[in-house]
Sequence to fold (484 residues):
Amino acid sequence: MNNPTADIAVVGLAVMGQNLILNMADHGFKVVAYNRTHSKVQEFLDGPAQGKSIVGATSIPEMLAQLKKPRRVMFMVKAGSVVDDMIAQVAPLLEPGDILIDGGNSNYGDTERRLTEMEALGILYVGCGVSGGEEGARNGPSIMPGGSVAAWPHIEAIFKGISAKTESGESCCEWVGSGGSGHFVKMVHNGIEYGDMQLITEAWQLLRHVGKRSDDQIATIFAEWNKGPLASYLIEITADILKWKEPDGSLLVDHILDAAGQKGTGKWTGINALELGTPLTLITEAVFARTLSSWKEERVAASTLIESKLLDVTVPATFVQDVHDALLAAKMISYAQGFLLMRAAAKERGWALDYGSVALLWRGGCIIRSAFLGRIRDAYAHNPEIASLVVDPWFQARLAEGQSGWRRTLCAAIQAGIALPAMSSALSFFDGYRTANSGASLIQAQRDYFGAHTYERTDKPRGEFFHTDWIGSGAFAKSGSYSA
Fold:
C-alpha cells in the first residue's frame, strides 16, 4: 500500500474497542480495526462500522501498512499476558518513533516494564487509562495517558477529540505524566469507584433496614441527593436501579444474588497503598466487603448459628439527612485517601502529577464523575502542596457540618447490627488524622520491649532513636528502625 491514510489502529474488537473506534470515526479520524479472530473484523465492518471512516485488517502487517507515520497502534485487549503477546507480534514490525498505546486496565508495574523495553527499541509507549464503560467509550470517556511524553503531540488531537467534555467544554483528557502514571491514576480511579459503590450500598441498607423506607422512597431520596453535593453518575444510576421492577412488580435488585464480583484493580489499589505506607482504609475495606459478600453460603450458615444481641433503634427525624451527611463525609475521606496514594506514588516514582488536572479528568465520562470533583480541583488550584484534602477549607467546613450526623448514623447501624465497613473506616481515619497525640507511643514501647526496635522521644528532635533496657539484660544492641 503506497499511500497510507489511516490515523490510528485499534487492536481488540470487544465492546470497548468497537465503541472507541466508532467514537474516533465520528470525530473525523480514519481507523484500522484489527482482531485476532478475523471474522470479528468483517462482522464489525458489515455492522456498526458500515459507512464510516473505518477499514479492516486481517493481519498485523496489513494493519500497519494502512497507517500514517508515526504509526499509532492502540491495544484494547485484556490486561496481562495478552498485552505482552500483542507487543511481541507488533513491535518487531515497527520503526523508531512509532507509538504503542495500551488502553486496557493494566497494572502500572507492567506498563513501566513495557515502557522501558519499548523505549530501548526507539518505540514510544503509552499506558492509557480509559474509563466510562461502553457508554463512555462510544460518547466520550475519561482518558488518562502517561508514559513516553514524546508520543503526546501525535495522539493528543485524537484523544482530546473523543474524550468527554465538562459543562464548560473542558476535555476530560490530559497528559498525566511519565512512566506508568496513567495506569496508576486509572487504578486509583477504580479504587475510588469501589469505595463509592460500597458507600452508596451502605446508605441504601441504612435507609431500608433502619430508616424503614421503601425502595420507591429511597429512589426518590437518591434522586433528590443527585441535585446537591452528592450529585454523581453512581447516585443517578442507583435511583434508576431502585425503581426497576420485574414483570410481577417485585424489585429487580431483590432477585440479584448479593455476591459482588471484582476484576482486580481495587485489590491492586490496596496492595499499592500497603507498599507505599498510605492508609487507604476505606477503599481497602470496600474490596474486603466484596470478598466477604462472595462467601454467600458461609454467611447464610452463620446467620442461623450466631445470635446477635441487637438493641432497639429509634432514629431521629433527621435520619435521612444524617445518612446523607455520613455518605458525603465518607466520600470526601475516600477521595482524600486516593489523592494521598497518588502523592506517595508520585514521590517514589518521580512523577510530576497535577492533582487538580487529575480531578478534572474525572469530571465527565468516567464512572466516578461528579460535581464533587470540581471542589477537589479548586483545592489543588488554591494550594498545590496541600497535605490532604481533609485540611482544605471547603472540605474542613463540610466535614464539620456533617460530623454529628455521621456519628449518629454509625451508632444506629451498630445498634441494628448492620455492617458499615466503608463509612466506619472513613470516620476512624478522620478521627485518627485529626488526633495530635495517638496511642502509638504504647506500640513503640511494646516494639522496643520485645524487639529492641527503638523509639523517638517527645522531648528530643525527630530522627533520634532510643532504646530502654526493659528486662535489665545489659545488652546494648538495637534492632533496625524504619518509617512506613
